């Protein structure tokens, strides 16, 4: 028998016991010589290292006692107290595991419920939009414009191969009808609104037929798929041509004669919407972006997604919330204390747009710092009032200067804060086509420059914001 397992043998006698295995060395502890046999009085400090087997360690961890039987074989003795302690430990572990499982299960159920609720809300929203559009088409009866299937739309756009622009309500693609006519196809997102934008476009533009209103060739309504098909305007939007510093306008600056004709064309289009239709149509989003130009730069008003239709004899409408694009919205649209909402709200937007055409810039100059911020309508009014040089670029002759001054004076009349002081669009056309001498300088608009936080803000209520056209 060897001492390789570190078994310890102790005797009170200084003489080695004959029963010790021959391979073991004895340890003489420093004890008192006359101590009682039942006692062990240590008289000095010493280091004592005990190493136990893995089996013994596992026994102690379970609350047991390590013992060697008479045959020097290992036994783990578990007492009743240790046994009960182990049972309690298992119970604690079982309870903790149960709570953890319940918590995980609850979390999974919660996530599933949230996802189900979200899906249900989206389904309800899409279903509401579908029902709204379906009811509109049913109540309208046969439409003069064509209705296409979604497969027709894919065919005419060659599976949406040529993208013209992107906006808040969807994307615009170039297409071609069977008769060879090129079109712009606006595919609407499913998640926007309750079908109101689609209904507004079809309801309003299908009633129109005017050289300065974009033509709606057809539409698609098939399940959740909705699209509008317009005549294609080769020169895109007016916005590309009027702002200095715009890369797309660097080689396409329009002459003053062209700008003047465009301003008259837009005015005639608005006059037609306000008075020429069997119902009055208020556009509510007149801006350079929504004016499209054909191959001869004839302007056409587009994007009727925010339009409102009302009887011809009705000049005042009620409306919840503001709609339009910041910088072009009439004061009374976002604050009723300025007056009532009517067709004069479009007149205001038109005036702001023409001022931008004249100045070849946004009405707010964001290139200057806050202290030097320039509000162009105030700047141009001051120079006009003092009969000073307008400093406008590209004025080649006296005719150009007269047209520019007429556009400025008419615009300043259009942006009067009080709607009752603004001219109708019929009067706007008369003033633009009349002589400069017959025009009076209007009172100065007293609205101050908008805050910088509003500059560049997009549409208040969902107008399309495309990069190039439509």
Describe this structure as you would to a colleague.
With 470 residues, the protein is of the alpha+beta class. Helix content is 36%, strand content 14%. It contains eleven helices and 14 strands. The strands form five sheets. The chain has a six-stranded mixed β-sheet. It has a two-stranded antiparallel sheet with strand order 1-2. Strands 9-12 form a two-stranded antiparallel ribbon. β4 and β5 form a beta hairpin. The chain starts with 53 loop residues before the first helix and ends in a 37-residue tail after the last helix. ATP binds at residue 186.
User: What class do helices, strands and sheet pairing give?
Assistant: alpha+beta
Separate helix tally: 11
Q: Average pLDDT value?
A: 76
Strand content: 5-15%
């Amino acid at each position: 028998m060897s001492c390789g397992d570190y078994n310890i043998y102790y005797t009170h006698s200084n003489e080695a016991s004959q029963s010790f295995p021959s391979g073991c060395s004895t340890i003489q502890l420093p004890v008192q010589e006359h101590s009682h046999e039942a006692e062990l009085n240590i008289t000095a400090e010493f280091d004592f290292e005990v190493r136990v087997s893995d089996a013994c360690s596992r026994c102690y961890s379970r609350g047991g006692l390590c013992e060697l039987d008479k045959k020097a074989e290992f036994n783990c003795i578990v007492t009743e107290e240790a046994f009960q302690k182990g049972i309690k430990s298992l119970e604690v572990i079982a309870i903790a595991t149960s709570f953890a499982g319940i918590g995980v299960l609850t979390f999974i159920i919660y996530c599933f419920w949230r996802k189900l609720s979200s899906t249900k809300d989206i389904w309800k929203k899409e279903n509401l939009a579908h029902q709204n559009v379906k009811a509109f088409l049913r109540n309208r009866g046969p439409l003069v414009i064509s209705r296409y299937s979604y497969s027709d739309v894919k065919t005419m756009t060659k599976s949406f191969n040529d993208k013209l622009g992107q906006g808040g309500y969807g994307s615009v693609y170039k297409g071609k009808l069977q008769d060879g006519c090129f079109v712009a196809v606006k595919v609407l997102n499913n998640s926007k609104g309750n079908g109101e934008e689609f209904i507004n476009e079809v309801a309003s533009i299908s009633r129109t037929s005017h050289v300065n209103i974009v033509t709606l060739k057809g539409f698609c309504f098939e399940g959740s798929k909705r699209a509008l098909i317009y005549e294609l305007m080769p020169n895109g939007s007016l916005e590309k041509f009027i702002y200095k510093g715009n890369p797309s306008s660097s080689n396409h600056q329009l002459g003053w004669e062209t700008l003047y004709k465009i301003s008259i064309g837009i005015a005639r289009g608005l006059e037609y919407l306000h008075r020429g239709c069997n119902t009055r149509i208020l556009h509510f989003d007149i801006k350079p972006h929504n004016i499209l130009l054909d191959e001869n730069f004839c302007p056409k008003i587009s994007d009727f997604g925010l339009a409102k239709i009302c009887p011809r004899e009705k000049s005042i409408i009620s409306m919840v919330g503001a709609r339009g694009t910041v910088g072009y919205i009439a004061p009374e649209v976002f604050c009723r204390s300025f007056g009532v909402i009517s067709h004069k709200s479009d007149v205001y937007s038109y005036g702001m747009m023409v001022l931008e055409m004249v100045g070849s810039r946004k009405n707010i100059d964001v290139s200057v710092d806050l202290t030097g911020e320039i509000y162009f309508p105030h700047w141009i009014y001051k120079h006009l009032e003092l009969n000073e040089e307008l400093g406008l670029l590209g004025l080649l002759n006296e005719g150009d200067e007269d047209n520019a001054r007429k556009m400025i004076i008419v615009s300043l009349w259009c942006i009067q804060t009080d709607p009752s002081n603004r001219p109708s669009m019929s009067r706007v056309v008369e003033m633009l086509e009349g002589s400069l001498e017959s025009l009076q300088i209007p009172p100065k608009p007293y609205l101050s420059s908008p805050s910088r936080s509003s500059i560049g803000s997009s549409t208040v209520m969902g107008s399309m914001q495309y990069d190039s056209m439509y």
